[in-house]
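Chain particulars:
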Amino acid sequence: MSWWKDAVIYQIYPRSFYDSNGDGIGDLEGIIQKLDYLNDGTDKSLGIDAIWLSPIYPSPMYDFGYDISDYNSIDSVFGDLKIFQKLIKEAHKRKIKIIMDLVVNHTSHLHPWFLDSRSSINSEKRDWYIWKDPVDGQEPNNFLGTFGGKAWTMDEKTGQYYYHSFLAEQPDLNWRNPAVKEEIFKMIRYWLDMKVDGFRLDVVNLFYKDDQWRDNPSRIFKGIRPFDRQVHIYDRDRPEMHDLLRDLRKLLDSYKDRMSVGEVMMDPPGKVSIPASYYGNNDELHMAFNFAFLYSFWGAGNFKKVIDEWEDALGEKNWPNYTLSNHDFRRHFSRYADGKLSFLRAKLTALMLLTLRGTPFLYYGEEIGMESERVPKKNLQDPVGIRYWPFHPGRDSERKPMCWDASEFGGFSKRIPWLPVYSKFQKRNVETAQKEPDSLWCFYRDIIKLRKSSKALKTGTIETGIDSTESFLYYTRSIGKEKSHIILNFSSDEKIFHIPADWKPKNLMMDSYQSGILKKKLSPAHEIILLPYQALLWEG
């Protein structure tokens, strides 16, 4: 079985993980120094299998690395190629895979390709980007930028507009030009030859736009941004993307055991059919993120609906994945907070995330219960937060520095970090959590450890259920005679769970109200009382 199906993947936002040189910004050497924390083969480590790195390429940082000016190097703020190669080597020693962020819908406006492209209408690289003449003295169509404003910027020198899905400093590549594909694929081979294990493709469903440049339809009363008040049918999800992904899959499969996972932009609440379509017939992306899961409101019925729809949409050949937090969304500890019971909810979602059929993606800091805290205006870095303050918090709140200990700046750095430190770092940090057997950190570690030892949890089928009051989401993972039963009480009250007649549980393995992997023998019963937000894993 492919490693990425078995793996627990851990996303690192490098600027915020660990600062090794005291400049207030996380770096690659800092990640190297923390590899043992991630997986050193002992109970002192979390036990993850792969790292997804947010962009580390050279960038002017208008969008903090998602505006790349050189695809074949490393930004000096993070290190250099030699240090990156050291990271790969040291990670592989610990059986940790490395996944890079692949941002190829657009480049930086300072990338040499774009500087050449905008230098003249006759430039050889002019059609590497999307240039259009004005229409009646205006923009070519009504497309809007995701971060605000029009998606078209006039270049006064050449008298044409160029297209950008995001900031004006992030011009979109023209994927209809074969030369662009050839150069990007060459770059991908460069990193694969360096033994990178896979790629996360940024906004993978935006690469192609409507070839007739038709206007997007409008909709009213939707969101605070003009962008949200369009129906995005002509600026994303175009059919040409599937041929490109099939070619990318052939490239990746020509190397041994490499993988891809795609970010598929979609509006809440999300339709699972959209990310599922980018798997193809198991011949396009290896995986695509299903944000309908992340968008789910608290509730057994809400999650069951998304899980079942995702399974049905993917079919037997394609492999699911799940995530609850990342660098663009409020951390799920904050989204699902319930006062003093918040840690119980966090343990329930941890057990769910790590026992569903598919590959779980964790986001740094979720294992200690980091929250999304609003960043003061004077400290804002994110262009979205700056533009829409105070109506939109931006994304800085989920990118705060990792809290390693109770020392100044949470042990992240020896100087003031690039973003304010999480306010509760003195109590909520790795060092403290590792010493408390019933901590959220220990619960994550123990589930991951149990998952590694269980064929049912790694590769087994899934059968979900829900009770009549929609308090319980329960499911069975099974392969051959091996079975695991998971029961999740989404209610803040004690509830009676009626055990399905075909369940024959033998041992209690995990209980969110107890610490450690338990392996306690169970007595036969027809029903059991679960405490508020209690989560159980039975073996049998």
Q: What stands out?
A: The first strand starts at residue 9 and ends at 12. The chain is about 25% helix and 15% strand. The chain has a mean pLDDT of 97.
